[in-house]
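Backbones bend. Our protein:
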Amino acid sequence: MSDDKPARETIEEDARIDALEQRLNAAQQRENQRNQPKMSGADANYRSGNRVLADLLGGILGGAVIGWTVDWFVGTSPWGLLVGLFLGIIVAFRNIIRAANKRPDE
């Protein structure tokens, strides 16, 4: 029985199979590279959203603090706070509009 040949003989490697495997590996590497995220940090939209939020909160809170301080020293109870809030909102929206009109490449 040891002298019997197997029913199927092994087929030697074909050069076409090697070339196909190399092309497949190259295609998989390109696909993996294409699917990787482009940026590791925050993207531009995230940063601009944070800037808008900071401008809005900073304008409102800054105006409120300045208005309240004016009220405290001058003694005009709600009017300094209201004027400060109003001016803070105006400044915040002016900064947001200015940031929105800026080109992305600047």
User: Anything to note?
Assistant: The two ends are 82 Å apart (CA to CA). The chain has a mean pLDDT of 85. The chain has three helices and no strands. Residues 14 and 20 are 10 Å apart (CA to CA).
